[in-house]
């Protein structure tokens, strides 16, 4: 049986960031936290009771801010995962998202002792001015202190999140971010995202009021190219549109999503792709805990992909990777050629958005800039 990836959502944080629309809350008490993690373990056990002890190769705690809650809660879930899944302890990639300002020496050592071996740090920018604008709880100095704590606890695999297109951000700010991050030997992986104004967030309100000064589209594009070029010059290979790594430090868990490998999600709003079915859990805390406690699946929606949907997902997810998609892999899965199934490919190549090398197609630099125009051709 094929290894799955396991995702666990931790919807707690110290303070809600001004741009965040993820299902997460600040200020919930110990009783609510305890009840939630009990429900997560019940959901995991229910999956195992139905599917058996499925082999898993990666575990990922996302949020929210998983490092905000007591390490014991994370440990309980890891114990439950070991009980319910077959884990290759020596080869597993087990990640926890963490924010500077929430880590302590005791937490970091507890994470290592429970088997976590990768940390994804929510930095966003090295500018304290930029961090304050985003509503982050930390400074760049806090980030470096957290790196020291993680290093002392034995963590070698550390990733950092970086955002661009921030309010008041300049091209020089972006260059500073790249220079500072690439100078840190402990950072092996960097995920880069442009700021998106999501409905219902604090930034959305400010934007509608005309009070949010953002870089224009041309400057944001220039920032993106500066990041790509700057990371490449400093030994970080772009292996996916938003992800860069030193050689050998690519994220195994995230890579599952782009090659349509199975993953199972537990917790509030968690998504799964298992046995060709996509599933999303409910987003309401009370609904989630009540359903799981009653022995019911906490599912908001399910969808079984038909043949055409699987083909389309294979294409647009695979094209996120810099290595592109190979028609030989497509033929093996679907028994046909994507050159025959998607006539749009020829037009995308002519438009300079895709490049073709024998049986492999990839995004061009122009295609990366206009990726959504490419992807929509396969949906």
TrEMBL record:
Family, according to the entry, reads as follows: Belongs to the anaerobic coproporphyrinogen-III oxidase family. HemW subfamily.
Protein's name in the database: Heme chaperone HemW
The protein's job, in short, is: Probably acts as a heme chaperone, transferring heme to an unknown acceptor. Binds one molecule of heme per monomer, possibly covalently. Binds 1 [4Fe-4S] cluster. The cluster is coordinated with 3 cysteines and an exchangeable S-adenosyl-L-methionine.
Give the GO molecular function terms.
4 iron, 4 sulfur cluster binding; coproporphyrinogen oxidase activity; metal ion binding
GO BP term (any one): porphyrin-containing compound biosynthetic process
Specify the Radical SAM core domain's residue ranges: 1-237
Origin species, per record, is Eubacterium limosum
Q: Which InterPro entries match?
A: Aldolase_TIM (IPR013785), Coproporphyrinogen-III_oxidase (IPR034505), Elp3/MiaA/NifB-like_rSAM (IPR006638), HemN_C (IPR010723), HemW-like (IPR004559), rSAM (IPR007197), rSAM_sf (IPR058240)
Please indicate if the UniProt record lists S-adenosyl-L-methionine as a keyword: yes
GO CC annotations on file? cytoplasm
Which SUPFAM superfamilies does UniProt cross-reference here?
A: Radical SAM enzymes (SSF102114)
Q: SMART domains given for it? A: Elp3
Q: Which UniProt keywords apply?
A: 4Fe-4S, Chaperone, Cytoplasm, Heme, Iron, Iron-sulfur, Metal-binding, S-adenosyl-L-methionine
List the Pfam families: HemN_C, Radical_SAM
- Give the chief site where it resides: cytoplasm
Per the record, the gene is: hemW
Compartments where located: Cytoplasm
Q: CDD domains from the entry?
A: Radical_SAM (cd01335)
